[in-house]
């Protein structure tokens, strides 16, 4: 998992402006996250947290500005990206293979999110919380240095949230970067927080 | 197995397990079964026109899986995950085209043997039909993935896909049916040239459509 990181990752946004349709989502957003940091991205519904993650991940282009991501990125958002007809283990293994990870990495990710007992269950039978845990396990198994977790606590019970907290703490302790979009304050200490408002500004 | 092959294998698995393969083949065979009921038991007429009908059926059968080629992966976030991993949209489109081609080609060619028997196509025309379809299938796969990428998520995607695909496939249909005529001329060469051109351009067109559809 994170032990495959070979160097200290970093993430920097320089004067990033994003316009979607007629709406200015961000205006000259600057951001810098160093290795071993956890950034909490917060703001009201529709303020652009998910858009920010998609811009960082390169899925959406910025109108102006640049995103410098030094390290492999992984995104867990509302889309599971696991084949519903495969078992949880097989679906995760598919992405692990795409990431050059091993079966052991995959099993470690499943264990970290307490999914080993569900490894032989088809993905389509998972509950909302279990699906969220599987998506996070996909991120863990990827061996990526920079994690973009969009509302990862939604649908998780307290035990699952604790598993996620532990995985995040382990990742940043190993020098990884975590960006966490969440409405509520995470129970773990954050290095910094970015508050986005509805007028395209960071507060 | 490298990542490209792994993704192609995934496409084949999805085609075989998702119903997107058997439906087109059954449709193709259904046309071949029904056509003699329309024309009557005139063997000469069936032999003369049956090949053209099979070409039309092959073209239309490629339309049937259009809604499952791109949309499920877009909705599930699979396309986003591939993009994050550095896969260009054009390469993803090439994977989809290759997967569709491999999954669809063998069943369609096998179905063509049965369909030819149902229609009473002469043996020499059967071989030409099989060769022509084999040559045209890369283009038909390319077109179906491109149209699927263009219409993914739109209301009435199937109907719109038909409207878009049919005019684009007319050259394939003309040259394909031409190979079965009594005076085929250079129809097979023209079919091959058209198929190569469409198959080569399709990943770029489909890739652009995938990119434009990302929100």
TrEMBL record, chain A:
MF term (GO), any: transmembrane transporter activity
Signal sequence bounds: none
Location of the ABC transporter domain: 11-203
Keyword ATP-binding: yes
PROSITE patterns documented for this protein: ABC_TRANSPORTER_2
Annotated keywords: ATP-binding, Cytochrome c-type biogenesis, Membrane, Nucleotide-binding, Translocase, Transport
InterPro entries with a match to the protein in the record: AAA+_ATPase, ABC_transporter-like_ATP-bd, ABC_transptr_haem_export_CcmA, P-loop_NTPase
Domain of life: Bacteria
UniProt-listed GO biological process terms: cytochrome complex assembly
Presence of the UniProt keyword Transmembrane helix in the record: no
Protein name: Heme ABC exporter ATP-binding protein CcmA
UniProtKB/TrEMBL annotation, chain B:
Main localization (coarse): membrane
Family assignment from sequence similarity: Belongs to the CcmB/CycW/HelB family.
GO cellular component, one term: plasma membrane
GO biological process: cytochrome c biosynthetic process; cytochrome complex assembly
Listed transmembrane segments: 21-38, 44-66, 101-121, 127-150, 157-178, 190-210
Keywords: Cell inner membrane, Cell membrane, Cytochrome c-type biogenesis, Membrane, Transmembrane, Transmembrane helix, Transport
Pfam family, any one: CcmB
Stored PANTHER family: CYTOCHROME C BIOGENESIS B-RELATED, HEME EXPORTER PROTEIN B
Annotated compartments: Cell inner membrane
Membrane-topology annotation of the record: Multi-pass membrane protein
Function according to Swiss-Prot or TrEMBL: Required for the export of heme to the periplasm for the biogenesis of c-type cytochromes.
GO molecular function terms attached to this record: heme transmembrane transporter activity
Protein name in UniProt: Heme exporter protein B
InterPro entries, A to Z: Cyt_c_biogenesis_CcmB, Cyt_c_CcmB_bac
């Amino acid at each position: 998992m994170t032990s495959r990181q070979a160097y200290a990752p970093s993430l920097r946004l320089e004067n990033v402006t994003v316009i979607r349709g007629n709406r200015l989502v961000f205006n000259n957003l600057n951001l810098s996250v160093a290795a071993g940091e956890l950034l909490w991205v917060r703001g009201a519904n529709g303020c652009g947290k998910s858009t920010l993650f998609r811009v960082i991940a390169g899925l959406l282009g910025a109108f102006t500005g640049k995103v410098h991501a030094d390290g492999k990125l992984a995104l867990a958002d509302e889309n599971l990206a696991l084949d519903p007809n495969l078992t949880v283990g097989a679906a995760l293994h598919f992405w692990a293979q795409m990431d050059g990870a091993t079966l052991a990495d995959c099993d470690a990710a499943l264990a970290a999110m307490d999914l080993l007992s569900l490894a032989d269950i088809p993905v389509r039978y998972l509950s909302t919380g279990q699906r969220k845990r599987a998506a996070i396990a996909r991120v863990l198994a990827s061996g990526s240095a920079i994690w973009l977790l969009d509302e990862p606590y939604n649908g998780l019970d307290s035990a699952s949230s604790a598993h996620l907290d532990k995985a995040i703490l382990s990742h940043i302790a190993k020098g990884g970067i975590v960006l966490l979009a969440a409405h509520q304050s995470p129970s773990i200490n954050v290095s910094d927080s970015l508050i986005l408002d509805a007028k395209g500004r960071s507060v | 197995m490298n990542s490209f092959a792994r993704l192609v294998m995934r496409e084949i698995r999805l085609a075989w397990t998702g119903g997107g393969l058997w439906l087109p083949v059954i449709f193709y065979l259904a046309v071949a079964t029904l056509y003699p009921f329309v024309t009557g038991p005139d063997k000469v007429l069936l032999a003369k026109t049956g090949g053209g009908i099979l070409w039309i059926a092959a073209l239309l059968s490629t339309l049937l899986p259009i809604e499952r080629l791109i949309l499920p992966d877009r909705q599930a976030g699979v396309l986003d995950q591939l993009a994050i991993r550095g896969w260009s949209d054009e390469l993803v489109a090439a994977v989809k085209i290759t997967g569709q081609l491999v999954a669809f080609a063998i069943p369609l060619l096998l179905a063509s043997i049965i369909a030819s028997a149902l229609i009473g196509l002469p043996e020499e025309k059967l071989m030409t039909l099989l060769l022509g379809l084999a040559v045209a299938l890369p283009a038909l796969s390319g077109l179906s993935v491109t149209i699927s990428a263009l219409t993914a998520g739109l209301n009435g995607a199937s109907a719109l896909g038909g409207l878009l695909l049919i005019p684009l496939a007319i050259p394939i249909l003309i040259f394909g049916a031409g190979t079965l005529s009594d005076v085929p001329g250079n129809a097979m060469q023209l079919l091959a040239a058209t198929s190569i051109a469409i198959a080569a351009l399709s990943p770029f067109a489909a890739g652009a459509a995938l990119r434009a559809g990302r929100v």
